[in-house]
Design brief:
The protein is elongated. By secondary structure, the chain is mainly beta. It folds into 3 domains: about 35-50 and about 210-290, conserved putative lor/sdh protein from methanococcus maripaludis s2 fold (Beta Barrel), CATH 2.40.420.20; about 50-60 and about 135-210, Beta Barrel (Elongation Factor Tu (Ef-tu), domain 3); about 70-125, OB fold (Dihydrolipoamide Acetyltransferase, E2P) (Beta Barrel). Strands 2-9-12-11-10-13 form a 6-stranded antiparallel barrel. It has a 4-stranded antiparallel β-sheet with strand order 6-5-3-8, with no helix packed on it. About 10% of the residues lie in helices and about 50% in strands.
Length: about 290
């Protein structure tokens, strides 16, 4: 009976060891299996990369006209309020002075700004009662270096971004002499058709500076930097090849490179941070390549 129990225990031990061994083999096989990495790709292009310079400016009315009474006196009636739009010859206020009543009219159409007085207040003929501003067309003032000044020509159109909207700015004036700061003033105008542009807003203008000609261009997101060296991963069948490249010029979206890449190649733009040379990948955006 004792021998039977011992034999039974030995059989169980052998079976358990076999099961553990099989599990261990399975784990090794699973660990040895190379993971397929999902990635997104984009085409390599050949052409010219335009380098742009970003300059900033601030908006102001394209013109302002002070509203000043001919004689000092007391405001009898005030026909407008801050922000009102008036037409030429509209009455703004009536001022009573020792010489009689004077109707103050708008010399041109515009928007009433800087109106600080009210009925019953005494106004002089030296300080403006208000300012009539042209907000239909906004002036964008830029302050640039001598080198940047060379990028501007009168009557050139330049795309500008204000807030999250794009506008066409027309260069109206490029000053010949610098200010005390050493910077040059450039003035541009922007049509304020919907009236959403306000004085004081900051505008960003992108100005073409130079071109890198006849170069390989990839999305900037394709560039991987390791120990001060740059690489791209080129798709080859279902695997990738890690290719060292030299950055010729980079912009936010696109980068000009030199290296062993061709216009027919496709590079990884998303998922490449976990890749190594020869990694197996699965492309997830084949219908959306750019």
């Amino acid at each position: 009976m004792v021998k039977s129990k011992r034999l039974h225990m030995i059989v169980l031990f052998i079976l358990a060891a076999g099961i553990l061994g099989a599990c261990s083999d399975t784990e090794v096989k699973e660990d040895d299996t190379e993971k397929v990495v999902p990635v997104e790709i984009s085409d390599v292009e050949k052409g010219d990369l335009t380098i742009t310079k970003t300059v900033y400016g601030r908006l102001e009315p394209s013109s302002t006209i002070p509203v000043i009474p001919q004689s000092p006196g007391e405001i009898d009636t005030l026909e407008v309020a801050e922000g009102d739009e008036v037409k030429k010859d509209d009455v703004i206020a009536t001022v009573v002075s020792p010489t009689g009543a004077e109707s103050i009219v708008a010399k041109t159409k515009g928007t009433i700004t800087s109106l600080d007085a009210g009925e019953g207040d005494v106004v002089s003929n030296e300080d403006p009662l208000a300012v009539l501003a042209d907000l239909d067309t906004m002036k964008m003032t830029l302050h640039v270096t001598a080198k940047e000044r060379e990028l501007f020509q009168v009557e050139d159109g330049r795309e500008s971004v204000i807030g999250d909207k794009k506008y066409e700015a027309m260069i109206e004036r490029v000053k010949e002499m610098p200010e005390e700061t050493g910077l040059y003033t450039v003035e541009a105008t922007i049509e304020n058709k919907k009236g959403k542009l306000l004085p004081g807003m900051v505008a960003r203008m992108e100005v073409p500076e130079e071109k890198v000609k006849d170069t390989m261009i990839v999305p900037t997101s394709a560039i991987v930097t390791e120990e001060e060296e740059s690489f791209v991963f080129v798709l080859q069948d279902n695997k990738v090849k890690k290719v060292k490249v030299t950055i010729a010029e980079t912009q936010t979206d696109k980068t000009a490179i030199e290296g062993d890449v061709d216009p027919d190649d496709q590079v990884i733009v998303n998922g490449q941070l976990t890749l190594s040379d020869g990694s197996e990948v699965e492309v997830t955006n084949e219908e959306n390549e750019s």
